[in-house]
Amino acid sequence: MITPLLQWVQSLTQVPPEEENKFLAACNEKSLKKGELFLSAGAIPRKFAFVNRGLFRYFYQRKKGTEMTKGFFPEYSIIASYSA
User: Fold this and answer.
1) Residue 73 in contact with residue 51, Cβ under 8 Å?
2) I want to staple 45 with a disulfide (CB 3.0 to 4.6 A). Which of 32, 67, 71, 81 is the partner?
């Protein structure tokens, strides 16, 4: 079964047909509600994600609580804490 994630990986490298199911079995699908955090400030990032549908905002909070947007992760992109 070709999924958006598998299509994205195959755009970067060739995945042998016999390895496709092994790759997909190693992945977990999770849905987040609007406003739910994928990674929290101060936590050690131990995961990354592929955005299948939706838009994620990458932000930090200043000391006074003001949120500052650093960027966005659109559909078919990878979410990760690159600085960590």
Assistant:
1) yes
2) 81
Taking only Cα atoms into account, the Rg of the chain, rounded to an integer number of angstroms, comes to 15
The answer to whether the beta carbons of residues 73 and 58 sit under 8 Å apart is: yes
Which residues are CB-neighbours of 43 under 8 A, at least 6 positions away?
A: none
Q: Could you tell me the pTM of the whole model?
A: 0.76
Helices (H), 1-84: 4-12, 17-25
Identify residue 82 by its one-letter amino acid code: Y
Q: Are 6 and 16 in contact (CB under 8 A)?
A: no
Per-residue pLDDT of the chain (84 residues; tens, 9 = 90+): 568 999 999 999 999 989 999 999 999 899 999 989 988 888 888 888 999 999 999 988 888 989 999 999 999 999 988 776
